[in-house]
Amino acid sequence: MVEPDLKARIAWELRLLTPDNFLEQLKAQFQNPNYQQKFKSSVKQSKSLENQDYSDEEFERLWEEVWQANIKDAKRFNSFQGFKIDDRLVQTLEDTQLRKGKIIDFDLAAEASKPLVVQWQDSTVVHYNLYDLISQGISRWAQVDLSAQVVYQMSESKKFFRVFIGFKSQKAAKTWLPELKSKLGRLSHLVELPETEKPTPHKYHYQVEKFKYKTEKKILEVLNEIAQQKLI
User: Fold this and answer.
1) 176 and 109 share a domain?
2) Nearest to 40 by CA among 22, 13, 19
3) What is the reported pTM?
4) 33-44 and 3-17 helices, crossing angle to 10°
5) Total domain count for the chain?
6) pLDDT value at 144 more than 80
7) How many other CB atoms sit within 10 Å of the CB of residue 42?
8) Alpha-carbon distance 178 to 206, whole Å?
């Protein structure tokens, strides 16, 4: 069998055998050689490799390469302890400051007691476990785009909640300012954010600094109303 074809067949069969909780299993069985052997035996016995002409030496050489590639793919597409690579995190601090970061890797070594690898916005890399995240006020956050101009960002803990309104021009932003203030509350000055921090495709943004309403339900209701309008 041509080597690239054999490698593709091994990779395909291994992927079919990979469970959703593969990363958790792999960490728990990191030092157990029988765990990997179970997959290897199943792949060898698969119909895809049945009656194919290849040597054991050739299979073994390709197997380790495919196995490592499968772990890498699992880190990209599967979750680990409820998190995925590139999940965005925010830490709320006592002085009302915050910092943002993201999951960049999972440390699956058996001895790793802090398997969640986080890179913060200042480029520092810190390892955490689930208890650390809770005790240090770190939670996942996501952005919801109500329109191309109206977005909000909220953490799972709901301690982090931000609303942005984007505009193409300063003129449009100033025109809409009185109505936005009357509906939402106190807004920031109009700002130009760095490209990497822009919450919308637009150049200028207002951020809501103090909401007119106290309940999340009412705030989102008003935001949806604003999102239905063309803010130009």
Assistant:
1) no
2) 13
3) 0.86
4) 120
5) 3
6) yes
7) 13
8) 12
Last residue of a domain, one of 28, 44, 77: 77
Whole-number Å distance between alpha carbons of 22 and 29: 10
113 and 158 housed in the same domain: no
- What is the band of 95 on the pLDDT scale with cuts at 50, 70, 90? low
Do 151 and 221 lie in a common domain? yes
Structural domain range at position 42: 3-77
In the numeric block, the tokens 């990497």 are attached to 196
Judgement on whether residues 48 and 109 belong to the same structural domain of the protein: no
Residue 82 domain-assigned (yes or no)? no
pLDDT digits (tens, 9 = 90+) for 179-189: 999 999 999 99
Give me the residue label for tokens 């208890």: 131
Q: Is 66 within a domain?
A: yes
